Amino acid sequence: MNASKLPHGVGAIMSRRTLLGGATAIAGLGALSLLPGCSSTTSKAKGNLDIWTNHSDEEAAAIQGIIDEFTQANTDIRVNLLNVGDATQYYTKINTSAVGRSLPDVFYVRTFDVASLAAKGFQVSIQDLADQNAEAVDVPDLWPAQVEQMSLDGEIFALPYDFSNNAIYINKTMFEEEGIPLPTGEWDWTEFWDTAAQFARTTNGTQDRWGASYYFSSWVWIGFLASNGGRMFSDDLASCVVNSPENIETFELFQAQLQNGAAPAPGATPEGVDSFGAGLVAMTVNGSFAVPYIRGVVADKFEFDVVRMPTGSTGRRDVATAGGAWAMSSSANQEAAFALMTHLSSEQALNTLIAEPTRSIPGRQSSAEEWTSVATSSGLPPANIEVFAEQMNTDALNQAYPKFWTEFETAWNNRTAGIANGDSVPEALAALEEEVNQAAARYA
Q1: Considering just the CA atoms, what is the radius of gyration of the chain in Å?
Q2: How far apart are CA 13 and CA 17, in angstroms?
């Protein structure tokens, strides 16, 4: 099937039916198929595959079950799964193995790392395979924003696992006790922080409650900045442009909340304690991936729900997105590896892995329909959980990530830690931009 190549950059928004391009087929490679009456992907490939992932024991067991389906349908392929549950250990292992050219055939990767790994040659394009197996891959069923993030220079390099965005978790009980109207999600950031300020409380001279907590996660802030007219990267993803008047204004607004008591400053809450779960804040910014965790830390202490993210000065939410995906190494048994990746990212697999246990949001729009059905009929909080899927359809920012993302994230973490502790925002952003563009120049 012929299709135009994928454009990249914030403004390159794909419609649901737009396909990635390139029609060159890999010689000698047969198209994937499904066994009649079941969902298992079949291939003529043979060999042994290693796959690494970074999930909880429960999720890894579910992934193993999907792999078992695959190997039962493909008896000439054997698959060895390694799960490294600790994220720091896992990504250290990925980076070390990448440098040593000893990555497994298939490995789990965060979508914001794809461009960086691909630019270094640590994972390979699957564009030709996706073109040849267009029906099985079904790119139009993927989230356009995630396709952007799994691509580099118009070619796709990964297939989806899950996809995430953020919303505002609210402590309904605290709102009701204070007599403050519950937010509906029709608000902007100024209204959000005005609401948060009403919950600040001091006891015996020490503040012991705040209105809202947020975090300086780099991918989340892409949305914060965009909704106020700012950007992190140039349209061609060749440079960092974070030092702008719009971004300074956004950072100073959020920094002010740490200083005026609307949000807890670093070290203000007990170490190791979740401020939202402990009832120390009335609201928090967190992701669709956090629903099971929030349920656990809140338990039966209070009622909670979620509402949409606030809009910025542009009138848009521009909700940032990121997720997990399956990548293929340059040393992979490519035909067998691609068949496994396709099986793991199929609608049926994502229903089992993501939709039915309501983890994050599935990487397929078709599976997200099942996710919404399960999530809204479970009787578990948050009652308004469908806002995550709704935002993906209506508010998701179509933002790709640059080749220098790894260097950017290191610089970002260092500079935003300083901003949280009171550093000058203009000076911090100027330094951040300069440091990142030195790294970006190495990819030019």
Answers
A1: 22
A2: 12
Compute the CA torsion angle 340, 345, 349, 351 (nearest 10 deg).
Answer: 180
The answer to whether residues 129 and 155 touch, using CB atoms and an 8 Å cutoff, is no
pLDDT of 16 over the 70 cut: no
Q: What local confidence, expressed as pLDDT, does residue 31 receive?
A: 55
Token digits of residue 315: 């009138």
At 33 the pLDDT is 57
Beta-strand runs (E) in 315-426: 321-328, 361-362
69, 150, 155, 257, 385 from 116: Cα distances, Å: 32, 11, 14, 34, 33
Rounded to the nearest angstrom, the gap between the alpha carbon of residue 395 and the centroid of all alpha carbons in its chain is 14
Residue type, 221: W
Residues in the chain: 444
pLDDT by residue (tens digit) across 81-110?
A: 999 999 999 999 999 999 999 999 999 999
Which pTM was predicted?
0.89
What distances in angstroms separate CA 255 from CA 35, 102, 109, 208, 216, one per listed residue?
56, 43, 32, 19, 11
Query: Cα separations (Å) of 157 from 148, 180, 324, 325, 423?
Result: 10, 48, 13, 9, 39
Domains in the chain with CATH codes: 39-164+321-394 (3.40.190.10), 166-320+401-443 (3.40.190.10)
Confidence of residue 18 (pLDDT cuts 50, 70, 90): very low
The SS3 call for residue 285 is: strand
